[in-house]
Design goal:
The complex is a heterodimer of chains A (234) and B (138).
Chain A: H1 2-5, E1 11-16, H2 21-32, E2 37-40, H3 45-50, E3 57-61, E4 67-72, E5 79-81, E6 88-90, H4 94-105, H5 115-121, H6 127-144, H7 148-161, H8 166-174, H9 178-195, H10 223-233
Parallel strand pairs in A: 1-2
Antiparallel strand pairs in A: 3-4, 5-6
Helix pairs in contact in A: 6-7, 7-8, 8-9
Chain B: E1 2-5, E2 8-11, E3 23-25, H1 29-33, E4 36-38, E5 41-44, E6 47-49, H2 56-59, E7 60-63, E8 66-70, H3 71-78, E9 82-85, E10 88-91, H4 95-104, E11 111-113, E12 119-121, E13 130-135
Parallel strand pairs in B: 1-10
Antiparallel strand pairs in B: 1-2, 3-8, 4-5, 5-6, 7-8, 9-10, 11-12
Classes of the chains: A mainly alpha (234), B alpha+beta (138).
């Protein structure tokens, strides 16, 4: 996205939000051999500042330092992640299209938000949310110093206080291993899809947007697997 | 004791005769909490909060050869959440800083180190359009 729009036209800051630090994210950065600005954010500082509860998330900041758009599930493109049976298609191209439009047309872009719109769309930060944030940082600290028991205790407490924060959940699950975390994400998504009207990401409100930007592996929905699941339930 | 605040981890001295409250040496306040004591009160960047005159005696104490400030009481006053486990204190974001930022829609400033070692401060990029993007390996 950065190269195709034009590096001289804007600054792209890519924030790797991962308590594993450089060790966890270096291979991803190296694979992309990025030409834009890259930072590692082990304490989820950027998400705390911008109020994001999931990844990927993105904000547009104009020349005056004003936020003119902020979205969760803002994928730079439609991507395929995982392999074999675990292959998942994620994201869509709508955010990249809108970003290109904003870079070209600035405040005239129809995708720019007013400050009123921004205030309305940003999630409210109540007492529990702020306590959850402090608790989550405590969990990250104990994880970093190798105190797994206390880390897990505080990850759980943070989730209890802010049940809709996927960052807290996913980072906490990752403490038990990335495979465990991936399975838990799928299980929780499936549970939410079946039992609630909550989606993994809030709608961005962009033309051509795929509302389910994170979907389960397709094989889970093949007739054979559905039949097997029905049999197992009996 | 350890204080987690503003994405940083700082080790600071602890007042040994009262470990129930978070007492911080006045000189340690800026590096540990981001707040600085000034004539106008307590200041966090451009934001200054006057200290209530009737609490000063309780909140500022001479002990163990140092001057200490009862940060946990101050945090309660400004609505900043804090949680502790043993000698580790974690401070949430400052509501007033967040509220001011959101009302004006000014992007909250931050300073981080780029992978290439350069210091990145968002406010240094004024005059350019910025796309800020988070992702993770999980």
């Amino acid at each position: 996205m950065y190269e195709s729009i034009g590096p001289d036209r804007f600054e792209l800051i890519s924030v790797a939000q991962d308590s594993g630090g450089p060790k966890a994210v270096d291979k991803w950065f190296d694979r992309a051999s990025p030409t834009f600005r890259c930072v590692v954010d082990p304490t989820h500082q950027i998400s705390s500042l911008f109020g994001w509860v999931n990844v990927p998330s993105a904000a547009w900041i104009d020349e005056d330092g004003t936020i003119v758009r902020s979205n969760e599930g803002a994928y730079p493109a439609e991507l395929t992640i995982g392999f074999g049976l675990g292959k998942v298609r994620v994201g869509d191209n709508s955010f990249a299209r809108a970003t290109r439009d904003w870079i070209e047309r600035g405040p005239d872009s129809e995708h720019v938000w007013s400050s009123t719109e921004l205030a309305e769309r940003l999630k409210p930060v109540d007492d529990d949310t702020r306590l959850a944030e402090a608790t989550f940082k405590l969990a990250l600290h104990f994880e970093a110093v190798g105190d797994s028991e206390r880390a897990l205790k505080h990850f759980a407490a943070a989730h209890h206080l802010a049940p809709d924060n996927w960052n807290y959940l996913r980072q906490g699950w990752t403490h038990k291993g990335t495979l465990y975390a991936s399975v838990q994400v799928l299980k929780r998504q499936s549970h939410l899809n079946k039992n609630t009207d909550k989606s993994f990401y809030d709608p961005m409100g962009l033309p051509g947007e795929n509302h389910r930007r994170y979907t389960q592996p397709e094989w889970l929905w093949t007739p054979a697997v559905r039949g097997l699941k029905r049999l197992l339930r009996r | 004791m350890i204080i987690l605040a503003n994405g940083k981890t700082k080790e600071v001295a602890q007042r040994s005769d009262d470990t129930e409250n978070l007492w911080v040496r006045i000189g340690d306040l800026p590096r540990a909490t981001g707040w600085q004591m000034k004539r106008r009160g307590m200041c966090f960047g451009d934001l200054c909060v006057p200290l209530p005159a009737n609490r000063l005696e309780e909140w500022i104490a001479d002990a163990e050869d140092w001057v200490w400030f009862c940060y946990s009481d101050f945090a309660d006053m400004i609505g900043q959440k804090h949680v502790r486990d043993g000698d580790v204190w974690s401070l949430g974001s400052v509501p007033e800083v967040r509220r001011t930022g959101l009302e004006s829609a000014i992007a909250p400033d931050f300073e981080m180190t780029e992978r290439n070692g350069n210091t990145l401060r968002l406010s240094d990029l004024r005059g350019r359009k910025v796309v800020l993007f988070t992702w993770s390996s999980w």
